[in-house]
Amino acid sequence: MKTIDLTAPLSVWRPTLLATALLLAGCATPPPVDPAALAAAPDRFREAPTSPAAAPGPDPRWTEAPPAEAQPRGAWWRIFGDPALDALAERAGAANTGIREAGARLARARALLRGAEAERLPQAGLGGGIARQAGANTVNGAVPATLGRVGASLSWEPDLFGRLGRVRDAAALDAAAQAALLESTRLLVQADTVQAYLALRATDSERGLVRETVAAYRGTLDLAERRFAAGEVAEIDVARLQAEVAATEADALALDRRRATLEHALAALVGEAASDFAVPPVPDWAAALPTVPPGVPGTVLARRPDVSAAQAALLAAQARVGVAQAAWFPSVSLTGAGGFASTDLGDLLRWSARAWSLGALLSVPVFDGGRRAAGIADARARLDEATAGYRGQVLAAFREVEDQLAGLRILSEEAAAQGRAVEAARRATALSDSRWRNGMVSQIELLDARRSELRSRRAALQVQAARRQATVALVKALGGGWDAAPAEGAPRAPGAGAAPAQTPAPALAAR
What backbone torsions phi and psi does residue 412 show, to the nearest 5 degrees? Predict the structure, then answer.
């Protein structure tokens, strides 16, 4: 039988100890993430506009930018060329309560990271105290004595199996996720602010149109009342016009209520009380309708902060599996203390009262009733949950981009069709008005023509508003600012151009 010499010098045991440590450290390595469980980025967006001669694969006009999940999204709202909108978006980015909450969560995550980093460093402290205790036994019994102590202590836990390192890595990934979520919150808040403002301005335009129609109806009503007084028309014609005027005035009041609601929503987004907040109406308001280049799907994954946050959460969950596995392995703590101790306070700081100690504590888990195994199972389940969450976030990102690209394409076609309908309705109203004034048609035909024109013009305004809303939603789906393409038609306010690229540029760069 072969025997093991426990009295052999450390140099004999060193290779065996090193091999054992490496083996145990390898056992604590977290499992890899299955690539099949992650969503692959398609070559291109199906709804992205392409020329017939375009080659298959990613659009060659654009290239992927470096990851910029924690970079500011840029002042992308300037593409609409409205200084009032610029000011509101910047106020929302600075004062919104949701952004402040996200900033506080990031500060907490960074504090936890500093705490995890501190666990890997030696811990030192100073201490002292005075205690009254029983002394040595004598023939007269125990003699009480006062013991004074003053000294320093030092402790350190070597990270032999990588547990503390993985705790620190997980905390760093948590901080990265919170930084990305802060930018995601800022992007969402500013996008909501822009959408609320654009909806308010669209409501202003629709209110102007409805009130213009009310004025036209009243003019017609005045004429009908004069004709009724002269006996030229029946009373029922006057009653029909009165009903039409009242119904259209009710529509105008409903738009007033909607505008007030949107104004209050803007107040909450910029962090102000609704009672002290107001956005003055702007007559004949118009904004640029920009063309947003979607780029390639891989760029969305690099730029969207919520996708980056989900990825960091996945990697943090993976690191915590290694932390849970490392709980099975031995832990070593090195401690040391030195100072002075004496029962006579006058001799406390004499050299003869010195005291010191050195120690090493080895702790090996043997039986815990399944607690550590349950911890590993919990960590693996959290990793599976984070993997599914990351995949879902990626698929949601691609879906949102495709939704807005399809919406913009269809809305563009709808706007062209609605424009033709408006022109035809205006022509029909003009002809009906002329024929009615000359007594060639009944008042019912004129009212029908005006109702049709009002419906067409309101529908055209709503389509334009929907196109602006879809543009903002596409910017949000793409992850923020980009190098904007020229806008369609509407002029821009002086000094309101595309948002500048960040460094490193988080946007798409034209080749």
Answer: -65, -45
262 pLDDT band, cuts 50/70/90, is very high
Close Cβ partners of 329 (under 8 Å, ≥ 6 residues apart): 24, 27, 28, 160, 161, 163, 365
The amino acid at 7: T
Could you count the other beta carbons within 10 Å of the beta carbon of residue 162?
21
* Strands 141-156 and 509-510, bridge-based pairing: unpaired
Least Cα distance to 217 among 435, 429, 459, 431 occurs for 429
Q: CB of 55 within 8 A of CB of 69? A: no
- Please, which residues have CB within 8 angstroms of residue 457's CB and are 6 or more apart in sequence? 209, 422, 425
23-51, pLDDT tens digit by residue?
A: 444 555 777 776 767 777 777 777 776 54
The count of C-alpha atoms lying within 13 angstroms of the C-alpha of 297, restricted to the half-sphere facing its C-beta, is: 19
Strands 123-138 and 509-510: unpaired
* Helix ranges, 51-162 (H): 83-95, 97-118
Check whether domain 38-46+58-121+147-329+365-510 has CATH 1.20.1600.10, yes or no = yes
The model's pLDDT over 444-493, given as tens digits with 9 standing for 90+, comes to 787 788 888 888 888 888 898 899 999 888 888 888 765 433 344 433 33
pLDDT tens per residue across span 266-292: 999 998 888 889 889 887 787 778 777
Place of tokens 């000359």: 438
Confirm if 487 and 471 have CB atoms less than 8 A apart: no
User: What's at 252, amino acid-wise?
Assistant: A
Give CA–CA dist 437/123, Å, rounded. 97
- Nearest partner of 168 among 319, 336, 390, 372, judged by Cα: 319
The pLDDT-based confidence of 344 (bands split at 50, 70, 90) is low
Give the integer Cα–Cα distance in Å for 437 and 202.
Answer: 34
Tokens 């995949």 -> residue: 391
291: which DSSP letter?
A: P
- Count the helix, strand and coil residues of the chain and give each as a percent rounded to the nearest 5: 60, 10, 30
List CB contacts of 473: < 8 A, sequence separation 6 or more. Answer: 191, 195, 400, 403, 404, 407
Least confident of 167-181, 356-370, 385-399: 356-370
Residue 217 near residue 241, CB atoms below 8 Å: yes
Contact 444, 156 (CB under 8 A): no
